[in-house]
Amino acid sequence: MAMAIMSRITCRAAFSFNTALTRCLFNATSDGHVTERVEPPGPRVITSEVPGPKSKQLSSRLSQYQNSDAVHFFVDYEQSQGNYVVDVDGNVLLDIFTQIASLPLGYNHPSLVKAVKKTENMINLINRPALGSYPSADFVERLEATLLSVAPPGLCHVQTMGCGTCAVESGMKAVQMAYQVRDLIATWEKNGDPVAGLCIEPIQSEGGDNHASATFFQGLQDICDETGVYMIMDEVQTGGAVSGKFWAHEHFHLKHFPDVVTFSKKLLSGGFYFTEELKPKEGYRIYNTWVGDPVRLVLLEYVLKEIKEKDLAANAEIVGQQLLNGLKALQSEFPGLLKNARGLGTLCAVDAPTPEIRDDILKRLRNKGVHLGGCGASSIRLRPSLMFTSQHVAIFFDKMRSTVAEMV
Ligand SMILES: Cc1ncc(COP(=O)(O)O)c(C=O)c1O
């Protein structure tokens, strides 16, 4: 009886939820047939600048309660589609920053819309488990179908976490715990400062998109091996096929796999992969309330399917090369404004001469309908979704060229 009532409630909830979603994300033709929404043909800015008046008003309201200096603009997520973000003022921007590099398939991708409409997936949306203690029956299967199916070569253990910060901190904790077991006493005896692990990004992203050679990473691993220091590869920003390989560190041809690989952003769930040696011997050592989120794994399954079926890693390599070639051409044309074009897949960047000029370029670009991010002191950082195509590249360079041309 209880089951019957529950399933009726579930069905009714699913029905109204689905109807609302359908209305938002699909267009109905005159005969009632629903079609998937398509991307806008290009950017369109209708206010005199971005952020526009509605965004500014919301920012000042928000700033009563918290610092809102980091808010770029307020977003209309219902209207945003594919590679285009729509702000609350109705401006349509080609999004090459994608929620700080965290949207694998752009906005409202049809396969994800379909996924959340399935009743069995909605159960995960409604009930958020304390995953470390109360996982659902299908959790192991979901892990196997998602994160373990794309585990970095050689790593077959994984710990989910809620976000990238948790992933990096817990990865470091795992390293410290194993180090304590192995070497701490010996090091203390020598009165030195013990070093348990070394954490490095394949491309130092927030710090300015700084690249290092494969030889550098190989040498670093040799030092780690010689000194007994664990190597943590922080792939929070670089993982998920954007580099042209699923994991950016695969480009380095390391002698052996890193001890820990952290992930978040395009993998939707935070977490870290780790070696057998780092597996805690007791429960509750690496633990918090939610320890991740199964909903993210439900969605990740669809994301990974798209990446595989559409070979989006290859797309990132091709489109990334077009972006890098274009940036190099622009810096040759405007050497006073752009330099150091660099990239791996779509993880591309270029430097402005000063932070002020960088910020000015970003502001002017946004006012032309292209949203990009900064990093480091004066770098411009490109972080498109995996759905970025040559057509978007062409629109970007059209706007980018006219922006720097008007600043000469
Ligand atoms: C390389 C790297 N590690 C860790 C983090 C922190 O991740 P989160 O913001 O999900 O906590 C970020 C966020 O940008 C990052 O880029």
TrEMBL record:
GO biological process entries: gamma-aminobutyric acid catabolic process
GO molecular function: pyridoxal phosphate binding; transaminase activity
Keywords: Aminotransferase, Pyridoxal phosphate, Transferase
GO cellular component, one term: mitochondrion
Disordered: annotated span: 36-57
Cofactor dependence: pyridoxal 5'-phosphate
Pfam families in the record: Aminotran_3 (PF00202)
InterPro entries assigned to the protein according to its UniProt record, in alphabetical order: Aminotrans_3 (IPR005814), Aminotrans_3_PPA_site (IPR049704), PyrdxlP-dep_Trfase (IPR015424), PyrdxlP-dep_Trfase_major (IPR015421), PyrdxlP-dep_Trfase_small (IPR015422)
Family: Belongs to the class-III pyridoxal-phosphate-dependent aminotransferase family.
Name listed for the protein in its UniProt record: 4-aminobutyrate aminotransferase, mitochondrial
Native species: Plakobranchus ocellatus
Organism taxonomic ancestry: Eukaryota, Metazoa, Spiralia, Lophotrochozoa, Mollusca
